[in-house]
Amino acid sequence: NRVLVLNGPNLRRLGVREPDVYGSESFEDLTALCRDTGRRLDLQVEVRQTDDEAEMIRWVHEAADERLPVVLNPAAFTHYSYALRDALAQLRAPLVEVHISNPATREEFRHTSVVAGVATGTIAGFGFMSYVLALQAVAEIVAERHR
Ligand code: DQA
To answer: Where do the annotations place substrate binding (predicted)?
Structure first.
């Protein structure tokens, strides 16, 4: 059961970037947490990060073609990338949108997600735990399908 955990722009700078908002742990810490969670849930988790919209869209096409579930933190793409949304609309397995912070409590421009409408669901505001909860949701849905 492969799952892609895709991360958008600036997320490789976790720990350095606005630690008051995103915490003091690094992207490597996040990667380790996702892999450990995957092991616990019997999911083969692949964590990736890019600052490049084109690369992100290629990864989504790959997930669509291979019918892979996706846990996605689109970062700032969340708020404006219709190209990413259109790519995500092609997915045929669950898509969980995640955010470390709770965008609803922040600046006005973060209150809109162009991704939410094509996601299975969204988990936001729980720090790195948002990813753990998202992977749990994926594991439940995958298990449900095999029952
Ligand atoms: C974020 C929230 C976005 O508004 C922001 O652009 C990010 C990170 C989060 O995980 O809280 O880069 O997606």
So the answer is: 73, 79, 86, 100-101, 110
Q: Average pLDDT by consecutive 10-residue portion of the chain (147 residues)? A: 97 93 95 98 98 98 98 98 98 98 97 98 98 98 87
Q: What is the ipTM of this complex?
A: 0.99
CA angle 37, 42, 48 (to 5 degrees): 55
Cβ(76) to ligand 1 under 6 A? yes
Number of compact structural domains in the chain: 1
Is the distance from the beta carbon of residue 83 to the nearest atom of ligand 1 less than 6 Å? no
Cβ atoms of residues 37 and 25 within 8 Å: no
The CATH number of whichever domain residue 85 belongs to comes to 3.40.50.9100
pLDDT value of residue 97: 98
99 part of the active site = yes
Phi then psi for residue 74, to 5 deg, are -75, -5
Choosing from 79, 96, 101 the residue with most ligand 1 atoms within 8 A of its CB, the one to mutate for a pocket test is 101
pLDDT of residue 113: 98
Q: Is 22 considered catalytic here?
A: yes
